[in-house]
Amino acid sequence: MQPLVILRIIGLLLMVFSSTVIPSIGISLWYNDPELITFINAFFVILLSGFILWWPVKDYHRELRIRDGFIVVVLFWFVFGLVGSLPLYLSESLNANFTDALFESISALTTTGATVFTGLDDLPPSILYYRQQLQWLGGMGIIVLAVAVLPMLGIGGMQLYRAETPGPVKDTKLTPRITETAKALWYIYLGLTIVCALAYWLAGMTPFDALGHSFSTVAIGGFSTHDASMGYFNNQGIEMIAGFFMLLAGINFGLHFKVLHSRTLKEYFIDVEFRVYLSLLAIASAISVLYLYFTHTFDTWGNALHHGIFQTISIGTTTGFTTAEYYNWPGFLPVMLLFLSFVGGCSGSTGGGMKVVRVILLVKQGLREIFRLIHPNAQIPIKIGGKVMPENVSNAIWGFFALYVASFSFMMLLLMASGLDQVTAFSALAACLNNLGPGLGDVGANYQGINDFSKWVLCFAMLLGRLEIFTLLVILTPSFWRR
Description:
single chain, 483 residues, mainly alpha, two-stranded antiparallel sheet, 23 helices, 1% strand, globular
């Protein structure tokens, strides 16, 4: 491990991160809201912190090793969750304690969308914009953006990319050079954001709301500038746009790149993960719509249709926008939607959950073991899209699932020990570990009412889910620190 290299990178990234506060300063000036001094103070504190870390080691140049990459990624999310909370903690409008400010910051950066704040409609525009922007920055992983910048500063980025990029196969690059890969991903991400913002604006949102909601839609974050979320607009056109872009953001961005490169939509339908992803959402949407209609939850077929489809896509892709209080829907429906978030988006997307490709592999492996009971000597390879998956990938999937279940069980016991009831504890943990946001029970509307200890546990869960279990847990093992 090379601590001086790590300090230099974190210092540089903090100085870069300080620039993300500047737009909020501009928003505060434009709207003449009371948070101008808050953001100016936050900007200088973050900039100075980065400079203090970077200056003593600025001339120390070494290539990153794999261990260093893991530590930088984990430190990145912890440190930026901390400094990202600074404007929220300093804000007089929010009057938030440190735990709430940190919870909101980590929720935004991990694109979870669980909020502890209410009265959003009355908050200053600069605070509202800052929350939305944090989600957008976290959407594709700020590390990937930094990978495109760091080579210009003399720092290699392949190790960071391997540690950060979501999905079971981490060495696949879209372009020969990692810098170009990062740029390609961010061009697609930025392009989707711009088109989404324009669509929202044309559908009736104000420019401010259109920009803010495009940030959280493409990031699959779910934060809104209004307490009623998407339900505030009461506009089916806006909901259709949101549904479409949530679907797009839940697809592997590498697949988007292939489609743009080949200029044919056929690439989507060749991909097995994409087909399963669409099929799951279609089946769950049909069940939701029919159940809502036949239980008379909504008066008309049209209302059942649009609420059922929108909410299924929102929860299934782990975005977390709401048009209605889905946690109060009858019967099994809220739990079914929550279970759908365990699958989440596709590998390489901005979505949370275990990822569709992992679930496909788990099902195929389960079926293979059943078949082996009948034919013990049979050699049965596991295939995805006609390609045989190596055994080490299959083993890694089982390892991921085992750690996922063990982590979930342990943290749920901690939440229940802190005083949360079973429904609240289970749904809050599921929503945070899957980077979904809204839960059931006491966290259906927001997380303001739960105790501080639970919020700290859920902060860890959000980071664990965002870093897909292994990246965070690996640095907690003694063998990682041995020479």
